[in-house]
Specification:
The termini are far apart. It is built from three helices and eight strands; from the N terminus they run αβββββββααβ. The protein is globular, with a radius of gyration of 15 Å. The protein is an alpha+beta fold.
Length: 158
C-alpha cells in the first residue's frame, strides 16, 4: 500500500476536468486501494483521484454506514431529488468548512475496477459525498458552492 500526498487548493489539477478511465487492470485496483488507504490516513470519508494529483475519473467513499469502502470509476450523477443543506469540509481545502446545498438523493451510474457497469441510488452522507467527490472530477471545489464558509481553528488555537 502507498499513501499519497493530498493536493491542496491552488494546485491547477483541482480545477481541471478529469479524464475517463479506459484501462481496467491490476494497476487500477492497486490505485483504488491506495486511494482508500490515503483517505483513511487523512481521516476523510471520500477522495477523488485529482486530489492525489491524477486526472482520472475515480472516486472512493466510506460513508460510515457499515458498507465499507465503495469504489466508483467514471461516475455519472443523475436524477437529483430534493435538497439538503449541511456542513462540508475537504481534504484539499483543510482550512475551511462550509454549508453546501446539495440534492438529498442522487443516482450514480458507474463502473467498478473490472469495468462492469452499475447503478446506485443514494441519500444521506453517501449522496452528499458522491456529489462532493464527483464535483472534484469536474474541477469544482465545495468552496465554489458554499452558502457560507468558516475558517477552521488551527490546532494550536484549540
Amino acid at each position: 500500500m502507498a499513501i499519497y500526498d493530498i493536493v491542496k487548493v491552488g494546485a491547477p489539477i483541482l480545477r481541471e476536468k478529469a479524464a475517463p478511465v479506459k484501462r481496467f487492470d491490476k494497476k487500477l485496483g492497486k490505485l483504488m486501494k491506495d486511494m482508500a488507504e490515503t483517505m483513511y490516513a487523512a481521516n476523510g470519508c471520500g477522495l477523488a483521484a485529482p486530489q492525489i494529483g491524477l486526472s482520472q475519473r475515480i472516486v472512493v467513499i466510506d460513508a460510515g454506514d457499515g458498507a465499507g469502502i465503495r469504489e466508483f470509476v467514471n461516475p455519472v450523477l443523475t436524477d437529483p431529488v430534493g435538497e439538503a443543506i449541511d456542513s462540508e469540509g475537504c481534504l484539499s481545502v483543510p482550512d475551511y468548512e462550509g454549508e453546501v446545498k446539495r440534492a438529498a438523493q442522487i443516482t450514480v451510474h458507474f463502473q467498478d475496477r473490472k469495468g462492469d457497469h452499475y447503478k446506485l441510488t443514494a441519500d444521506g452522507l453517501l449522496a452528499r459525498a458522491l456529489q462532493h467527490e464527483c464535483d472534484h472530477l469536474e474541477g469544482i471545489l465545495f468552496i465554489d458552492k458554499a452558502i457560507s464558509l468558516t475558517a477552521k481553528p488551527k490546532d494550536d488555537e484549540r
